[in-house]
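Listing 4. Sequential folding, example run.
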Amino acid sequence: MATLLRAERQRHRSDVFIRKVFFSILIVLVASSAVMPVGCGFITDGAGSVFGDGGEEVAGYFGAYIIYHDRQPRHLKSPSGESAQLVNNQEANDPTWQELMTFLGVDTTDQKPYVVDSYSCVAFAEELHNNAEAAGIRAAFVGVQFEDRDVGHALNAFQTTDRGLVFIDCTSPVRSDPAYRPIRELDNGETGDSGVAQAVGADKVAYVEIGKEYGVISIEVATFPEYSFYETYLAGREQYRLDVEAFNRELETYNQMVDAYNQGVEFYNQALEAYEQEVEEYNEALGGRTVLPEPEYSYFQAWAAELEASLAALMAIKAELESEQLELMLIQAGLNEWQMAIETAAGGIGDVNWLPLGVVASIKVYW
């Protein structure tokens, strides 16, 4: 009986401890997307209208806006008085959506650090405009004002041949602040000893509609320029957040079940070790004898009965643990499937959730 018990013990102990490690390794939390604000100090010369006058009012799907042709915007890049200077290319043409995305993928304006007093949104928009025109792509400089705010924002626009007017915001969220550290999801570069964050990809499709919040989506996941796409994106992002929260609650419950299971395994193995030790003591005391006189026979018979009862109790615990193990495996399979579905949905959200700047009050476009 002792030899059989030892074999059973070794086989079950090995299986239990393998499962314990198995459950511990596959406990994975789903992390939600990072959130970074986008915005800048919009500096003007303070003379008259922020955007000047003499523009043409046009009715667009995003509300009435003002267009200026061959006119420099009255926007200052810094307190020193240097204004934005647009350089147009008479040979430039309107791009397709894909041509625009390809250009943005090559252009590095968005990777520059944001510096409040010398390189703010006006400088970003000016440089992207001039780079696009130099590359043969017709571009516009855009100024946006917000409700209940004195500070506006500068960005760009492109009249694509297949998807209409597309707003692009390339202003980087990275500031030249020693205390700032870029979020890893945004940045493949590093922050050096100077504390100035480097190389953050920040090209975004901007969704600009008068009377609605100014929103942006990274170009990696933005596929349409219409504001309705942005609203659908926001709904998907919120659903993703809710799904992650629900998943993590279920995962926490699962982890608690794993902890309880592993505690049960520890108890079982300790009881099994004590039982095996007693079996060895029984066999040593019996000494291989097959015939015993009284009262020794009755003593060993009672001891053997106790061992049989202990074995039965251990087998009952083992059966319960195996049932719990199967339940955990089924729950884990469901969690893995759920996690894959959440991660698939996250592919349409991107690594960064950009915060809105405010409700748009006016739009001025400089071609």
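-- end of first protein; second protein begins --
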Amino acid sequence: VFSMPKGTPAEKVHASVRKFATEKFALQHRYAMALHTDQGHPHVHVVVKAVSEQGERLNIRKATLREWRQDFARYLRELGVEANATERAVRGEIRPQKATSIHRAMMRGASTLWRERAQSVARELASGGPRPEPGRERLVNTRRDVCRGWNAMAQLLDEQGHRELATVVRRFVERMPPPRTERQWIADQLEARVRAQQLDERQPTR
């Protein structure tokens, strides 16, 4: 899914994705694409046949996705749309990212995978709290590196006399939510629901 914020010209998003698909898949992999504007922000779904016409399988790695985001942003800029391909960690995003089908099922409460994970975390909470996760340390280290980068940028802006912009950068870093693994995020959601339910139960009935 190639998505841009509300207000971005849908025709330019579509044109950028069309150019991207032509550059990456034409004469190699069969693909189909569709523009959607029904959710407030323009986005294009692209479905690609994994096996090429030459019998080679499409191998998508993290580096591949990073390159694709950069190319998509470049095509948008060529059409006059301001766009940058920044990593989620650099933007301070911590919410677990799900495949589109899982995300939609989760939003309507029909995701079996999500329900099983939530039940697993609930059992851990009932027995004293979530168990330690190896990925937690990696998240913390990534966040530390990201903050160092932003703070170095703020210092450079200060040295160049851009104090207001430096303040904005530092405020952005300060407001980043703490890094959380998927299970920690689920635990926080469950605990928030319990607190909300307890609050409702305390409300006097009429």
